[in-house]
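>> Question from a student workshop board

For tomorrow's exercise we were told to take the sequence and the ligand below, predict the bound structure, and bring the output to class. My setup keeps failing. Could a helper post the expected result so I can at least see what it should look like? The ligand is iron/sulfur cluster.
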Amino acid sequence: MKPAQQFKTQATVMTHDLHHRELIHTALSKYEAVRDQSKAAYQDWQAARQAAAEAKWEAVNHLDEYLVEFSNKLEARGTKVHWASTGLQAKEIILGIIREKKARSIVKSKAMTSEEIHLNEALAEEGFEVVESDLGEFIVQLRKEPPYHIVFPAMHLTRGEISELFARELGSAPTQSPEELTMIARRVLRQKYIRADIGFTGANFAVAETGMISITENEGNARLTAALPKVMISLLGIEKVVPRLEDLALLLPMLSTIGTGQPLTCYNSFYGGPRQPGEPDGPDEFHVVLLDNRRTELLADGEQRDALHCIRCGGCLNVCPIFRNVGGHTYHTTYSGPIGSVITPHLRGLQEWKHLSFASSLCGACTETCPVKINLHHHLLHNRRNAARQKPSMFEKVAFKLFAFVINRPSLYRSSKRAGRLLQIFHPLVKGTRFDPAYAWTKTRDLPPIARQTFKEYWRQRS
Ligand code: SF4
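>> Workshop helper replied:
Here is what the output should look like for this input. Compare the format with yours to find the bug.
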């Protein structure tokens, strides 16, 4: 099935699933309350957004310089930096390191870039044991499904469903207690960390000034992933770079404020190389893989380049009325919601993924919430325009030509209104059938009756 058809079919199913909708609405209404509490601690939230946007603007518009600075500083401390133009290259680099180390087991902390290149599938195909250590990711991995949300991978599941899953997959006793469920996962994961040959992470930021990656988290799983195995691999998109360490004084709290509603996440760690002499823990070898995967094409697009400012906080997903109703899996993309709808056509092809730009009410809630001020709903319009320019729809071409023809001839326009009113009398008879000329439109919407009197007629009569 084509992505557009798949989206439409699943969106129809999900919007009728009231249980799912209630679950997501409950989860997100709590989120809004805590987010707003955290935002209130800022003296001037709008000024903070502006400063964050400027820091990302500087990084993205001088990416060539900051990436080289970041890479040189990392290498100076013994890190091996790899550059991957495509997802395939990134997979080959990572698989190459794992094979060379004769590793068998890999423990991973959350990395959307690894979802983007389908790393887990590639590792599993070669027989490696891969375990996700973030609790939400661990749960969806057991269910053999992709993350539902970029920050809350398992937000679509109830405690009961997780308990049943653990009982089935891990043999644990059923429980409704979140603490007990966490302890069950923890007991399993602790053993995996100890045995893992490779620790794999993503990164939230890459600091050019110090040559360090920054990882922000709440569970401490990324710390264990980085500290225990002998080899650490981090895969990050090239847009993660920020110029200075002090930029994180703003970006880290803003990420957690909009991401989870916390003033700051529990653990914030920096990794700048393998274990140095005298250090008690850390990997013997540290590899950083910098992933392009068509990000430079987005960089070349002056109009939409600011989509690379995204810090993956997930805020735009949380406030999007479409995401809240159709859910994360319906998109069938790594990045869902408004930011996914903006960047996926760039990463995977405009024509095949243009339908996502129409999965929006253009209410602008996403743009309003974005901590780095990405003009998301305008970019959705840009994608629509670019798709129409690239491959104009024959139907639309004819329809607009006809419209221009009629609107430019006042007498014809006047008669067309009368004809429209006449047609509408018959519309209830054909509504929702294949004879309905507005079938797709009226299936889910009302077609309001055309007024008996036009404004012009009314005005003439009035005067
Ligand atoms: S586009 Fe903005 S709101 Fe959406 S995930 Fe990225 S940073 Fe967050």
